[in-house]
Amino acid sequence: MAWEFRKIRPGENVAVESQRDPFAAPKWAPPVWHMPEALVLLVNAVRVLVRVVVFLVRNIVPVSAAAGLGWLAYTYGWTVPVLVVALVLVLLGTWAAADRSSFVRYLARPVRARWRSAWTYRRHWQPVLVTAGLTKTHKGREYLPSIVRVRCGPTSDRVLVRMLKGQAPDAWERVTANLAHGFGAVLVRVREGDRPGRIWLEFVRHDALAFPLPALPIPSPSAVDLSGVVVGRTEDGSPWRLRLLGTHVLIAGATGAGKGSVIWSTVRALLPLMLAGLVEVWAIDPKRMELSYGRPLFERYGRYSSDPHGGMVKLLEEAAEDMNARAEEFAGVTRSFAPSTSHPFRVVIVDELAFLTAYCPERDLRKRAESALAVLTSQGRSVGYCVIGAQQDARKEVNNQRNLFPDRIALRLDEDEQVDMVLGDGARDRGALADQISSVPEVGAGVGYVRLETSPDPIRVRAAYVSDDDIQEMVALALADLDAGEAEAA
Ligand SMILES: Nc1ncnc2c1ncn2[C@@H]1O[C@H](COP(=O)(O)OP(=O)(O)OP(=O)(O)O)[C@@H](O)[C@H]1O
């Protein structure tokens, strides 16, 4: 129980049960101990001293700077500190102009984090948490979760929070809307903390993915990393790197969700290695829409089929056969795959998986496609094969093959339960709101959620939009060595 000292009349100091709620009915406690005046003063003096020391330690840099300037002004007059401040500003300006990224990293962001910590988070912490029901009052004493540290990113803040003992992250997940409104954020996500009992709250200040991202420049061959080709941007403004080497990728999204932009951004990122003969793209195009634009490109630097009467399935089977032959060749010789012109990295893109499997009317073709896909996805990873499958319908009945794809992307989905079907259990609770992505193309097309290997928390991404003109430019670049007639024929 907490106590505070009250003075009743001179010489009469009493300790009473403390009451922090200003609206609570007055509760009179009988005097318990009569305290000497000097002891009361001493206790209060120690309290003030401790608070001052904590404040000084926490704010050592600004306090020292202010004290130094004060001392200069006192000793030499006000012009000297003004000159010192001007000099420091000039130095900081030069630093910012010369190396902006280090300036932002080592100075601007930490200063901003301190400011936001004090002004936005600590100032509103208690009222917002009380209203959101995240505090506990026990025997008149209020227990409040505490802020450990605040970090600022370009578009979001991360606040490390020490929860109350016995509190779990889902208590915070339930009130993310209250927190967002309380602290003026667009949305709030709850992330795993650095140790038990702590969580990171991610306050998104503004949506970095609200506007379409134009097609990224075609990279130089040495910049292409198959462990993470850049296909767009993540919510914190960093590049979205899609892993292809050693995995398979499923892109799930309702019609118009922008699956094409993920596929084309990937092809665009791979283009330099395709031209160098180190990567082949085998395109299977049942819809004859998205991939048909790049048909000459795929036919020259890979394969292409849109033939519904067995051609597409045959292509898949040939990929599976070739993969088997490669596996045999590599057995006992090499364990990690590095692409070469004799053994290029093969990306098999299937624009709509369900056309080959669930929707295919011919039972025989369906079975053959399913079995070739299963072979490719289960054994192809280590021998330089990557299957990228797009899928409109994420329901279980339609997509029984999703477990064959280790990496999955959830673009806009029609129903909330499809999110966990695509990204795995609990993904929606952890913030993958793929069912709430806007269906307005400018706002939501190409936006989605991915789960990285390193973290169970889904992150929000947007693929760059590769327009028809961009595709034509890629095709022209890839076929530049052919003369006009040949290109036409291709
Ligand atoms: N990354 C993006 N940024 C902005 N707009 C985009 C993006 N991707 C696609 N769009 C817009 O959204 C429209 C639909 O995209 P797209 O055809 O790629 O969707 P989809 O998921 O492949 O649909 P479907 O399954 O019906 O083929 C495009 O015509 C384009 O205008």
Automatic annotation (TrEMBL):
<dbReference type="InterPro" id="IPR002543">
    <property type="entry name" value="FtsK_dom"/>
</dbReference>
<dbReference type="Pfam" id="PF01580">
    <property type="entry name" value="FtsK_SpoIIIE"/>
</dbReference>
<dbReference type="InterPro" id="IPR027417">
    <property type="entry name" value="P-loop_NTPase"/>
</dbReference>
<keyword id="KW-0812">Transmembrane</keyword>
<keyword id="KW-0547">Nucleotide-binding</keyword>
<dbReference type="InterPro" id="IPR050206">
    <property type="entry name" value="FtsK/SpoIIIE/SftA"/>
</dbReference>
<keyword id="KW-1133">Transmembrane helix</keyword>
<feature type="transmembrane region" description="Helical">
    <location>
        <begin position="78"/>
        <end position="98"/>
    </location>
</feature>
<keyword id="KW-0067">ATP-binding</keyword>
<feature type="binding site">
    <location>
        <begin position="253"/>
        <end position="260"/>
    </location>
    <ligand>
        <name>ATP</name>
    </ligand>
</feature>
<keyword id="KW-0472">Membrane</keyword>
<protein>
    <submittedName>
        <fullName>FtsK/SpoIIIE domain-containing protein</fullName>
    </submittedName>
</protein>
<feature type="domain" description="FtsK">
    <location>
        <begin position="237"/>
        <end position="420"/>
    </location>
</feature>
